[in-house]
User: Which sequence fits this backbone?
């Protein structure tokens, strides 16, 4: 059995639109490296209450990992943020 390593990527929660492309490129690079190594990718936020750009990238990396058949997991902050996306009663604070 091959030793599969997990690559970790820390996403800036306070991501501004001007920085989103660089963050997306970093996430895709990390995803590619994880796939090449035969492992998975764990994405975590550097703090709670992410801005919209960070939330969008969490969704996008999930789709990219699925398409690449690369195992993906989320750290506690990222998982909590993802759960707010499916909660219709989430506060508007996350969307600002």
Assistant:
């Amino acid at each position: 059995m091959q030793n599969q390593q997990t690559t970790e990527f820390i996403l800036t929660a306070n991501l501004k639109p001007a920085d989103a492309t660089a963050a997306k490129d970093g996430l895709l690079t990390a995803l590619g490296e994880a796939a090449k190594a035969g492992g998975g990718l764990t994405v975590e936020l550097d703090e709670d209450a992410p801005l919209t750009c960070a939330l969008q990238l969490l969704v996008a990396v999930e789709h990219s990992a699925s398409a690449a058949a690369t195992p993906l997991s989320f750290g506690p902050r990222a998982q909590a943020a993802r759960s707010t996306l499916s909660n219709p009663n989430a506060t508007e604070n996350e969307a600002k």
In short: The beta strands are 6-11, 40-45, 72-74. Helices lie at 17-36, 52-68, 76-85.
